[in-house]
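Researcher: Next entry in the queue.
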Amino acid sequence: MSSSPREVAESYIAAECSHDTDEILRHYHDDAVLRMPDQEVSGRDALRRFYDENAAGFPTLEIDVRTVTAEGEMVALEWDALMVDTEGRRYPLSGVNLSKVVDGRFEYVHSYYDLTPFGASDS
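Model: Structure for this entry, 123 residues:
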């Protein structure tokens, strides 16, 4: 696998779109943390469950990477995504992943996006 933070982030996006959980997990350290607006997932087993459940609930995932900026161990990746659930409902999202890559794998990924497409509100 690629080892620069930029290469790891870009490779991860391709793996995530393919729903290949084993390939996705190759991008994470065993004790890595994935933090999102509504939850935090820590450790290999929890990450596996998260990605398997996400793939089952949203069999279509398309991500367009808009910008990637990397410096040292840190990488910021701006993206637009379309998730389609099992009933054909479409969920367009835009966001940013801020990640730390150590020894070619994520120590953490903090993903920032608006939950409004999923029915969440600010109140």
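Model: The CA atoms of residues 2 and 87 lie 36 Å apart.
Researcher: Noted, moving on.
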